[in-house]
Amino acid sequence: MAPLIKDGSGLQEQALSLVARGDFNGAQEKFLAASRKFAKEGRVRDASKAQAYAQLMVARPGMASPQMLSGLSSYLSSLGDEPMLLGARPTTARTLAAQLGLEAREAQLDGRAGSIPIPPQQRYDAQRELALSYQQLGDEVLILPELFTRVPQTGSAKGHVLSALAEEGLAGALVGSDPLNAAEHFQSASQWWRLAGDEGRAAEAARKTGSLSVRASCWICGRQGSGHGVQFVSIPIAPESAALRESESSPLPSRDPTGRSAYVCKGCTSMISDVADQIASARDQALEARVMAQIAALRSQMPRG
Ligand SMILES: [Zn+2]
Question: Which residues on neighbouring strands pair with residue 264, listed in sequence order?
Fold first, then answer.
């Protein structure tokens, strides 16, 4: 039977080995036990440090509340340059405090724990500022994300991702009202995704830039608009129409580059669909009336009695 470990240091060692195995709940209990033991032994600083470790076990990035994260950040600050070890990466309380301070700002922006929704432009400014703070960490690895996900991420890489998300967020808010401005923000997002090494999202943002920057004049009414899928859409046209000359009233195209589809503004498409609905409903009514008349005729032919 293994000897019973009774002192704070032994309990803390057990807790640290549970961290290394990824058992964060088990580790939290052991850290709390170690903290109590250190306090009894009169080792106040070690008790505080074990307490900090215990709280770190539940400071999961993307889940913990901004209040919890900023509280823990202040607590760690008070421990100064105390060495800490989480998983395989040695660090200090001060470094963790700074990283958790940034995490808290991110959690605030996420709207975690019921914080009030932030207007798009204000949110964008705050996200860009936060991204810059992460970029200033350079190659410093983010300790908690690595601990919980086992994937190392540097401050600058996180900064690139946050910048991309900031650009996409604002672009999304602008799409309906200002497609060309939205296109520019999707373009910036695409560049940030590329820097972050996410080619898939870079390509997706570039595709949105492409369709939002298309400007066209409506094939039917001639109104000018921008943003394919926003202010106008493509509608297939008969092959004979493809030979028709474009209207000269606008320098903008009213057919797509293939010539097989026309650009039609949202005003015209909504009118077309209203008229189509009316025709369809009139047809339904006429059909129903005919069927009713036929049923009545059949009934009248049935023998009575
Ligand atoms: Zn139109």
Answer: 233
Residue 231 alpha carbon to ligand 1 centre in Å: 10
Cα separation of 182 and 197, whole Å? 22
- Residue 223 CA to ligand 1 center (angstroms) comes to 6
Cα(219) to ligand 1 centroid in Å equals: 7
* pLDDT tens-digit series, residues 172-186: 999 999 999 999 999
CA of 245 to the centre of ligand 1 (A): 17
Q: Please answer whether residues 55 and 32 qualify as being in contact, where contact means their C-beta atoms are separated by less than 8 angstroms.
A: no
- pLDDT bin (cut points 50, 70, 90) of residue 1 is very low
Distance separating alpha carbons of residues 261 and 276, to the nearest angstrom: 19
Burial string for 113-144 (b: 16+ CB within 10 Å, else e) reads: eeeeeeeeeebbebbeebbebbbebeeebbbb
* Cα(246) to centroid(ligand 1), Å: 14
pLDDT confidence tier of residue 3, bands split at 50, 70 and 90 = low
Percent of the chain with pLDDT over 90: 75
pTM of the complete model: 0.79
